[in-house]
Design brief:
It is a single chain. By secondary structure, this protein is mostly beta strands. The strands form 4 sheets. The chain has a 21-stranded parallel beta sheet that branches. It has a 4-stranded parallel beta sheet with strand order 6-11-14-16. The chain starts with a helix and ends with a strand. The relative contact order is 0.10.
Length: 480
């Protein structure tokens, strides 16, 4: 019996020892998991940063309920001290990060983890109000000012907003309902707006349900918008995808956009305000874009184009179930110009119009516009276009005594729908030529024969923004 008891005691001690060792190993492993976990990632960018921090380091809470506006503001304020020391990056880890508007800084990168979601606050007090843009003179929704965009910045250099396809969700239905009910005193906010800035990169993100426009660089230069997915209900109001506005040297590429308005809307100010401000959008590259927007255009030039739009090059574009391809919108009183526009390799499926230009797009900023301010529309080139299931080939309407000139269409095949409009083309107050266009165009666009198929060739030179090469950036961030 005593022997048996001794064996039992020994066994008990062994079991206790094993449990203690196991707990120690588990505790050690858990401690290593908590204290020594390292998040590492790589991405391509205009510039890499010397310093990094996580939003969690500044009290951020990713529960989808707690406001993180102050956490973003505190983090960016702290990181601003590194602007002259190699710049800084703010990492947004996995979670749902509710926030109101916050402003970014120069030499700065905002990086969203693939499972990070920024949620636009529905507390209207978290959206400060700005004055109207000087080239517009008023807000788009209301005559007064405008709510600051979710991510905002002005007078900056070297700003990167990117991620591993992380998400920015504007929670638009709240704003759309207020807009439809006429309850908003100010223009709805955008998701991203950078003003008077240089060297901008916006890439590898998903943008959902913006209150209004999604991406709005304005009065800025040297911009790359790349690898962006934009999604909003096709009936949502004014959810334009990407709106370069009075910008120079811009590259938009590899984007997928489903929206309730134009997928890309090129702008430069509104009526007398845009004329006076006088800053055109020019040297714009758009390529490898896929668009779905049943009530709007794949690419719209205007209608706010009073500062001018020139040297736009769009290629490798696909439009599916979209109202029109490249649409020019202007009117008497706009002034300005749209010229030197080049489009090629355009594929369209299920469209209302393949081509649409209009000189009677009203919607003036106020009654003070100059009725003698006529826009100049010239040198508009489309080639290598294929479309199917199209209701009407083209609707081309210039302005009386101010015709749209230099229109060129070559190597264009448009397959009409089962029930097309009886008149395949309507043309008024335009001048131009065609070559190899089906169905046969209107008399104002005479066919020059197959030998003129290269008449509207794409420019062979490249723009400066096309020469920009990205760097490979690498970071290791310890996360609590």
């Amino acid at each position: 019996m005593p022997f048996s008891l001794n064996i039992m005691e020994v066994m008990r001690k062994i079991v206790v020892a094993l449990i203690v060792v196991g707990l120690a190993i588990s505790e050690k492993g858990e401690s290593r998991h908590v204290r020594d976990v390292t998040t590492s990632f790589e991405y391509s960018a205009m510039n890499c940063r010397a310093h990094s921090a996580s939003l969690s380091d500044f009290g951020g809470v990713g529960d989808g309920k707690t406001s993180n506006t102050k956490a973003f503001q505190s983090a960016i304020s702290e990181l601003s001290k590194y602007s002259s020391e190699g710049g800084a990056q703010l990492y947004v880890p996995p979670g749902k990060w509710l926030t109101g508007s916050f402003s970014v800084i120069s030499h700065f990168t905002l990086y969203l983890h693939r499972d990070a979601v920024l949620l636009g606050s529905q507390d209207i007090n978290e959206w400060p109000v700005l004055k109207p843009l000087p080239s517009y003179g008023r807000g788009r929704d209301a005559a007064a000012g405008r709510f600051t965009s979710l991510i905002f910045g002005t007078n900056l250099t070297d700003v990167i907003i990117t991620g591993d396809n992380g998400t920015i969700d504007g929670q638009g239905p709240f704003w759309w309902q207020q807009f439809h009910k006429g309850k908003l005193k100010y223009t709805r906010p955008y998701l991203i707006e950078l003003m008077f800035s240089d060297s901008i990169q916006i890439s590898n993100l998903t943008l959902l349900n913006s209150p209004s426009w999604n991406v709005h660089p304005v009065y800025s230069s040297n911009i790359v918008v790349k690898g962006i997915t934009i999604l909003a209900p096709v009936t949502s109001p004014n959810t334009d995808g990407i709106n370069p506005d009075s910008c120079t040297n811009t590259r938009i590429e590899d984007c997928y956009i489903v929206s309730g308005d134009d997928c890309v809307a090129v702008k430069s100010g509104w009526d007398e305000y845009g004329i006076q401000f006088g800053m055109p959008t020019k040297q714009l590259i758009i390529r490898r874009l896929t668009c779905i927007s049943p009530f709007s255009a794949t690419i719209a030039l205007g209608s706010e184009m009073s500062g001018g739009i020139e040297d736009v090059r769009a290629e490798d574009i696909t439009a599916i179930h979209t109202e029109s391809g490249v649409r020019i919108k202007t009117a008497v009183g706009r002034g300005g110009f749209v010229r030197d526009i080049y489009v090629r390799k355009f594929t369209m499926h299920t469209m209302k119009w393949a081509f649409w230009m209009t000189g009677n797009y009203g919607s003036h900023a106020d009654k003070n516009y100059d009725p003698n301010a006529l826009p100049e529309i010239k040198n508009i080139n489309y080639r290598d276009v294929v479309a199917d299931n199209v209701t009407m080939a083209a609707r081309l309407e210039g302005i009386a005594n101010d015709p749209f000139t230099g229109i060129c269409l070559a190597n264009v095949t448009i397959g009409l729908s089962a029930k097309p409009k009886k008149q395949h083309w309507t043309c008024t107050d335009i001048e131009g030529i065609t070559s190899g266009v089906t169905p046969p165009p209107c008399g104002l666009l005479p066919d020059q024969g197959p030998e003129k198929i290269t008449a509207c060739d794409f420019p062979k030179d490249s723009q400066p923004i096309e020469e920009l090469e990205f760097k490979k950036c690498s970071y290791r961030l310890k996360v609590a």
